[in-house]
Amino acid sequence: MNSMNEVLSVTDLRKTFKLSKKQQKIRNSNKPVITAVDNISFKSYEGEVFGLLGPNGAGKTTTMRMLATLINPDSGDATVGGFSIVKDPQKVRQNIGFLTNELKLDEYFTPNYLYDFFSEMHGIPKDKAMERKKMLFKKFGIDKFAEVKAANLSQGMKQKISLVISIVHDPAIIIFDEPTNGLDVITAKVVTDFLVELKAQGKSIILSTHIFSLIENVCDRVGIIIDGKMVACSPLKEIAKDKPLEEVFFDIYRETTGEVI
After folding, report:
1. H-helix segments, the chain
2. Do 146 and 111 form a contact (C-beta atoms < 8 A)?
3. CA-based max dimension of the chain
4. In what order do the strands lie in the sheet with 83-84?
5. Least enclosed by CB within 10 Å: which of 165, 166, 187, 200?
6. Is residue 244 one of the residues assigned to a domain?
7. In a domain, 1, yes or no
8. How many separate domains does the chain show?
9. Binning pLDDT at 50, 70 and 90, where does residue 1 land?
10. Which domain holds residue 201?
11. What is the pLDDT of residues 147-193, one digit of tens each?
12. Side-chain-facing half-sphere of 156: CA atoms under 13 Å
């Protein structure tokens, strides 16, 4: 790993959302605006896996969606592969793969059709696309289901297809929002093993999760986000200090929020 090469640099990213009266009621709050991400900054380097760790509602998905240029920050910026998410979103999109649990596959289409569609959209030559499809479909066991409509596939298989579609163009930088969330243990292991393999290929990966073992198994560096704020960010070894990450996280969580857990 060459720690000199910055792949991602996040500077004072901030995002707020307006809340409807109904949402305010659900949250038991009379505030019309919520700050989802509160001026966070962090860096990630070439060939490493950076893990953004935090509870549900901490701001992880909002951060990932800003980095993937799906939503604009209110203020602040980030460069991904040297391109600004604010000034150059198109260039950012060309250089990243983005996987989110919210990616809904069109129920009418088959894995074959979806793969070919996204390959074409990225302008990948047909022969190269075919070769890559064969390799990825075999690796994830999609080949047996290549002509089955998405509507008839299991949740785990849909997630594997979403993963494969997100990397059809063999991107150097991959952003995964909760890549193993809601998956059965077998599929989660397949996805985790693949992350390790991508890292071995020299890819740079940014992932968000609330699963401690995923961070411990694949990440080099970890940022802990609580209530939209980055409260710790260091190489995993420095944060964990020979203790289980879960223990360290709850210590930090209690210090930050004052809550008794």
Report:
1. 21-26, 60-67, 89-95, 111-121, 126-139, 155-166, 185-200, 212-218, 236-240, 245-257
2. yes
3. 58
4. 33-45, 6-18, 75-80, 83-84
5. 200
6. yes
7. no
8. 1
9. very low
10. 6-100+174-257
11. 999 999 988 888 889 889 989 999 999 999 988 887 888 888 888 89
12. 12
